[in-house]
Amino acid sequence: MRAVVCEAFGGPEVLHVREVPDPPAPGPGEVQVRIRARGVQYVDVLMLAGKYQFRPDPPFVPGNEGAGEIVAVGDGVARFKIGDRVMSRHRLGAFAELGNAREENCNPVPDGMSTEEAAVFSGAYHTAYHALLQRGRMQPGEWVLIHGAAGGIGIAAIQVAKLFGAKVIATASTDEKRQACLEEGADYAIDYRGGFRDKVKELTGAHDGVDIVYDPIGGQVTEESLRALAYGGRLLVLGFLGGGPATPRTNYLLIKCLEVIGVRLGAVTEHWPEVGRDNMRKLVELAGQGKLRPRISHRFPLDRAGDAIQAVIDRRVIGKAVLLG
Ligand SMILES: NC(=O)c1ccc[n+]([C@@H]2O[C@H](COP(=O)([O-])OP(=O)(O)OC[C@H]3O[C@@H](n4cnc5c(N)ncnc54)[C@H](OP(=O)(O)O)[C@@H]3O)[C@@H](O)[C@H]2O)c1
Fold first, then answer.
1. Strand, helix or coil at 154?
2. What's the 241 CA to ligand 1 centre distance in angstroms?
């Protein structure tokens, strides 16, 4: 099969399409997927650079999400049969024509959802859902501030927050990205550079801040976010794209009874697998009803994986980038 191979740690230039052996027949509890589309995301950038928490040694085939149809099933697989369309999550190896995945890491593609949408659905929407509703305990009517809102997990968070009745302020760096956030349902979209706390206080009026901040950015943005929270607010820590981890001022937490809450999607599968399965059942149902739909701004053939990675690095992607073929 053809696969995109990372041959050394580095940037997009370390990726090359090669002929590699097909994966082995799926083991017990596994399926083999003929992958037709894969999501490209910031995690792939970190993994290529050898900077992700999981650090495979090159050569390896990157990619952890995809969609296609099942071509083989291992012993004990009950939910799927050959020919079923699935969205699949992989530890590695999705930038290839074939990939094996655990049955529990696959979900059916609902009618009406395209293969490319399915490829980028699970990770982003499960992250947003788990973060806002489970870790953040979001209630209808609450104010939510979403940073990196035009990114993959950001657009998903806008859609999930609106679907469950929140009021959303999105932050993004360009007019084009802010316009996309409004199209996806955000009530307001603001520029965060140069400060956002005063604008948030103005928009939330007497509520005097937001109830939840969804923060994949870190650094200064986290520090200012604590000052944009209303009494009893919750700050959800999702990542550190711009400035690394922050050191929260605990006096702010005390005075306004704030909470800082870590969110890691991997923890759901590791520690609360039943919750994870239930979340995905609900999310696939909502996608089938057309209530959640990924936004895809960039499409590349498999042999241009490096260009897709570069688009993510350059912050040109709005929503998601996919590799097709
Ligand atoms: N905790 C979890 O379970 C979990 C799950 C999935 C992803 N993540 C993490 O969440 C973060 C966002 O993931 P994503 O897939 O949404 O990424 P993405 O699609 O690349 O979007 C990230 C957004 O962040 C903003 N940004 C700010 N500073 C940036 C910088 N220095 N470099 C790049 N972008 C920057 C950009 O928007 P502007 O141009 O508007 O600033 C960009 O649109 C990543 O760190 C990822 O590892 C965490």
1. helix
2. 6
Kind and range of the H or E run holding 277: helix 273-288
Mean pLDDT score, 282-304:
98
Beta strand 296-301 with 259-262 is unpaired
Partners of residue 72 on adjacent β-strands: 32
Q: Is 294 in the pocket of ligand 1 (CB under 6 A)?
A: no
Supply the residue whose CA is at minimum distance from atom 36 of ligand 1: 148
**Model confidence over 156-183: pLDDT tens digits?**
999 999 999 999 999 999 999 999 999 9
Quote the ligand 1 centre to 72 CA distance (angstroms): 35
β-pairing, 65-73 vs 85-89, is: antiparallel
Instruction: Pick the atom of ligand 1 nearest to 173's CA.
Output: 40
Measured on CA atoms in the order 315, 135, 123, 239, is the torsion positive or negative? positive
To test the pocket of ligand 1, the residue of 297, 315, 320 to mutate (highest count of ligand atoms within 8 Å of its CB) is 315
Q: What is the dihedral of CA 291, 297, 301, 304, to 10 degrees?
A: -140
Q: How many residues does the chain have?
A: 325
**Dist. CA 155–CA 293, nearest whole Å:** 9
Domains and their CATH numbers in the chain: 2-121+294-324 (3.90.180.10), 124-266 (3.40.50.720)
Q: Residue 289 Cα, ligand 1 centroid: separation in angstroms?
A: 27
Task: List the strands of the sheet with 229-237, edge to edge.
Answer: 188-190, 167-171, 143-146, 210-215, 229-237, 259-262
CA 148 to ligand 1 center in whole angstroms: 6
pTM, two decimal places: 0.97
